[in-house]
Write a structure and sequence with these properties.
The chain is mainly alpha-helical. The chain has seven helices and five strands, in the order H-E-E-E-H-H-H-E-H-H-E-H. The strands form two sheets. A three-stranded parallel sheet has the order 3-4-5. A two-stranded antiparallel ribbon has the order 1-2. This is Thioglucosidase.
Length: about 170
């Protein structure tokens, strides 16, 4: 772990030094990019939402993995709280994304939050749908384009248990 941290520190230092000209930091602005260039940021539901066990969300394979094998995660953390975006998204969008000036935010929808058992037949979690609807509306209302992925390697545990995940020909 120390070796990885040392390498990262060296790479960051080199990157910083490369941005310096005559001892001064190089200035880069939006004007240095084409007019149609989109400045954005992204994350995945499991990485930032938190709230893994409230409002009808059921476990994903990542929830199970981090609970059963905390030693496999460097700091032993899980997605239970994460960045608590589920509860803080409105202020995060206004106080962070909008202030920085991002044009877009790429997010993933937690399959386990919208379809807790993995299928429509298993039931739709309307609280999850309302969350994403409100999140997307808040982004748009603040001039930030939502870019949505519907799967980010967080398969509902119920589907993994039933089919063995994507390795099963029955799954596809």
């Amino acid at each position: 772990m120390e070796t990885q941290q040392s390498v990262l520190l060296i790479l960051l230092s080199v990157a910083y030094l490369l941005t310096c000209i005559d001892g001064q930091q190089a200035e880069i602005s939006r004007n240095d990019f084409p007019d149609h260039f989109i400045f954005g940021t992204s994350s995945a539901a499991y990485q930032y939402e938190g709230a893994t066990d409230i409002d009808g969300r059921k476990p994903s394979i990542w929830d199970t993995f981090t609970e059963e094998h905390p030693e496999k995660i460097a700091d032993g953390s899980s997605g239970k709280v994460a960045q608590d975006f589920y509860n803080l998204y409105k202020s995060d969008i206004v106080d962070r994304l909008k202030v920085v000036g991002f044009d877009s935010f790429r997010l993933s929808i937690s399959w386990s939050r919208v379809l807790p058992y993995g299928t429509i037949a298993g039931g739709v979690n309307h609280k999850g749908v309302r969350f994403y609807k409100s999140l997307i509306k808040t982004l748009i209302d603040n001039g930030i384009e939502p870019i949505v992925t519907i799967y980010h390697w967080d398969l509902p545990q119920a589907l993994h248990d039933k089919y063995g995940g994507f390795l099963s020909p029955k799954f596809v």
